[in-house]
């Protein structure tokens, strides 16, 4: 995720990282106010979000993430996004396959810390993933 990447490029890169099994916590702010709502989970705070994403990466594989119409609006220092996403994955312990037609939305902020190697990179501070049925 290069520092000059646009908010849209970071969202798309996040989708790629999910598919590839790459670390996901760097895409999220570590702030206490960071939130992530999944199909059947609610996470509050950067530490809880990071822990859940690490566990997800360790226990799932063969991700499909197909964007149906990503819309990103850069609002100068923060950005909003919305998308309809077909997503699927396999649980490594059981081999169970899950598939959802889902809706994603959220907010990203642009980091500008000079000491941070991710300076000027966008990070999620809020993400909401929903589907018409529970997991």
TrEMBL record:
Domain of life of the source: Archaea
Q: Which residues form the SnoaL-like domain?
A: 8-133
Kindly give the InterPro entries that the UniProt entry links to this protein.
NTF2-like_dom_sf (IPR032710), SnoaL-like (IPR037401)
Q: What protein name does the entry list? A: DUF3225 domain-containing protein
Organism of this sequence: Natrinema altunense
Q: What is the lineage of its organism?
A: Archaea, Methanobacteriati, Methanobacteriota, Stenosarchaea group, Halobacteria
